[in-house]
Design brief:
85% helix, 0% strand
């Protein structure tokens, strides 16, 4: 059987539980405060932007490395047989865009 508790023990238990409840209610109040919710949301959004920017940087870096590997040999010399056609395409695109812009005017 359980031991009988004295009134002082019961009162001490009630006081302890009230203190625990007060702490719990304070924590809930802080968590549900609009400023806390707003700060948490801002932090999550910033983290998401950081992750997205990091992924974009890695992807862009990979593309630049792949293009560089196509246009420059391993010893660092330019591969003219690949650079010249790419440059000609670039000039053609710029020329077409210029003609198109002049026609609109």
């Amino acid at each position: 059987m359980a031991e009988a508790r004295t009134p002082a023990q019961i009162e001490a238990d009630i006081v302890r539980r009230r203190q625990e409840l007060a702490v719990t209610l304070d924590e809930i109040g802080v968590r549900l405060h609009p400023k806390t919710i707003m700060d948490d949301t801002k932090a999550r959004a910033a983290a998401a932007v950081d992750r997205t920017a990091g992924r974009a940087y890695v992807a862009a870096n990979r593309v630049v490395s792949d293009v560089r590997a196509q246009l420059v040999s391993e010893d660092g010399a330019p591969r003219l047989e690949r650079i010249i056609p790419v440059a000609m395409i670039g000039v053609a695109v710029v020329g077409l865009l210029t003609l198109r812009a002049r026609r609109r005017c």
